[in-house]
Amino acid sequence: MDPAQFRLLDLLIVVIYITLSTLAGLAMRGQKTSKDYFLGERSIPGWLLLFSIVATETSSVTFLSVPGMAWKEGGSFLFLQLAFGFLLGRLVVARWLLPWFFGGDYLTAYQVLKTRFDSSVQQTASALFLLMRTLADGLRLFLTALLVGELTGLSPGWSIFVTGLSTLVYTTLGGMKAVLWTDLFQFVVYSVGAFIIFGTIIYALPGGWGQLVSIGNESGKFNLVRLIPEPSAWTDAFWLPAGLFGGIFLSMASHGSDQMMVQRYLCARSQKAAAFALVGSGVVVFLQFALFLTIGAGLFALQQSASWTPEGNILPDRIIGRYVVERLPAGMAGLVVAAVLAAAMSTLSSSLNSSASAFIGDFVKLWFPKITGEQELVTGRWASGVFGILQMMVAWTAWQAGSEKGVIEQIFTIAGFLAGLVLGLFLLGIRKQVVRSPSALGGMVLGGALVLYFWMPTLWGEKGLAWPWYAPLGTLSTLGFGLLLDLPNPKRKIQPGNS
């Protein structure tokens, strides 16, 4: 087929997808208050929240980077150790943290901290969240732009602009309801895209599924557990304890102290509906990781069977994009690119809305206590736009800098570093005997310094602490230092919901 025809048909499909997403935002306009805009009137059913949580977690990083972890030399299914930890962490959140968020009329996760500490702790935790979301989701946008650029011929810079702007438009217009319903639409789109890739791989292998399993077994692609660390316990990201405990603490941090997820619980009709969405999403996410890793193993099998040989050296993050461009026919490639965009836009839209809600709930409402609901709404829309621009700037900077390190590892490093510290604050606050605010903040500073000490060697190319350990280390050190600093202080008992 002529390349121009190939590109035109695929671009048409991508444009249709972006247009439908934008129209969804237009259809959801009409909010009158910030709570309508950020919480969807607290009337969202559990099943919709479940798919929204899944779609939000399944960013372009999942779609592009996870297959590369199984495809690369020495890669395997060991990443599922972390995914199993994610599921266990959700159970902890549902049992001990979720009831806390339903103990009052909250807009953000960090307003809960103010019932135990003062506003300085609330704003510090919220500021760390805003920093983490801006950096991590900017990297997600960068990775998406790479594939969009490969298909369309646009430079990554223009791809970042188009993807970021289209997401910003429907998120700013439609608020949380638009985010949730487009999440469902995007879940369907990227699931179809994943199964299209998987189906074409099976079809291209002479021996089909059986050959994929045979090659995968021979090369160790289906290894699920690593009991002996390589080369050492603390530098091996795929040693079982690192994956399991890292996954548990990462999940507790991301789903128990991250506004992007907590905001969804606050949209639910009830705590029961929120718990159903939280735990059920863990099962779906685990299955998705298994599918994406199988796709990576399938791409490896294609190469081993000489059914497809990509040209040149390819980074693991780029293998899916190369396969889409080189092997998928016109139309089908466009659907897959739309799927990658769906995975990216579902996360980015959630990030923009939750960042704006944190800015309003944790800063604006404290600075201007007499602000009206309409003023909050207008400010929230502007804030969504500002955070969208900041994420686009991060993506552009990542493109200019370039990096051979897997994007997924960079994102989990950022999440583990910052979210672990915030989770430590939540664990200090959930105790019946709560530490004083200066002790909590001091514990977080010392915990951050300890994590930074173990992270520093990686800056000059040395082996440092494996990234799954950052979240447990940050959480436990913040908790431990906070309790230690508070030893000279008289204890005060506070029940949930009281200040």
Quick one: biggest sheet? 2 strands, antiparallel
Structural class of the helix and strand makeup?
mainly alpha
CATH superfamily placement: Sodium/glucose cotransporter
Note poorly predicted spans.
495-499
- What is the mean predicted local confidence, pLDDT? 87
Helical fraction equals: over 70%
Cα distance spanning the termini? 68 Å
Question: Which percent band covers the strand fraction?
Answer: under 5%
Known CATH architecture: Up-down Bundle
Q: What is the CATH T-level topology?
A: Sodium/glucose cotransporter
CA radius of gyration: 22 Å
- CATH class category: Mainly Alpha
**What is the domain tally?**
1
> What is the 3D shape?
globular
Q: Count of helical segments?
A: 17
What's the total number of strands? Answer: 2
